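USER:
Class, as today's exercise, take the chain set out below, and explain how the chain folds.
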Amino acid sequence: MVEGVLLDIDGVLTVSWEPLTGAVETVGSLTEQGIEFRLVTNTSSRSRREIAALLDRAGMPIDEDRILTAVTSAARYLVENHRGARCLVVNQGDLSGDLQGVELADAGSAEVVLLGGAGPDIGYDALNAVFRLALDGVPTVALHRNARYQTAEGPALDMGAFIVGIEAAAGVEIPVVGKPAAAFFRAAAADLGIETSHTIMVGDDVDADVLGAQRVGMTGVLVKTGKFLPADLEGDGPAPDHVIDDVGRLPELLRQLNPQ
């Protein structure tokens, strides 16, 4: 039985904040049927309030309390594990609004580093500063390890591609606080108030969204939109529990899983 639904945003509900096929109808269907759902995203370019406003303009009015981001997860992680430490944030966009309780710093005074999303404003100097801090033993954490993200113009390189280089050059391992971290999915299920075994996760990233959720006992659903590639379904490794063409097919899948 599926009692709760987690939905990725970028590539599932929207691309460049324009609604994808069936997204508006699916959100409306979940609301009308009283099915608990949360939006879970590694997006680091917008605050929860901004995301809610953009979704509202796209025809999906959703309260910001239903939006769980890697940034809010990072704030909780930093307060719990590096309380009081001055934090250098490397990200395309301002994260300060959702980093409650975290003291921000520049590279010269940083005691911990948070890597967010890449973009045109993230250059060599910023990434080299992170590398040097890592060499000096300053702990570094990342919102995600996404290697790419989808835009209206096509795929764009994301921070995950640079994280691999920093780890190799500095000889460190950078933990992730957003998807696919198990703690992120368990926190999302706890926010729903539903056991992971009764929760379904819908995403376009087979590793970060779908398989990450399946590892904590959720049902994983891969959509063939956003960053999906046919190669995602090849190989001998774990496979998604379900694959659908787009999020508009989700209500039908839920009826199949919950026939009564």
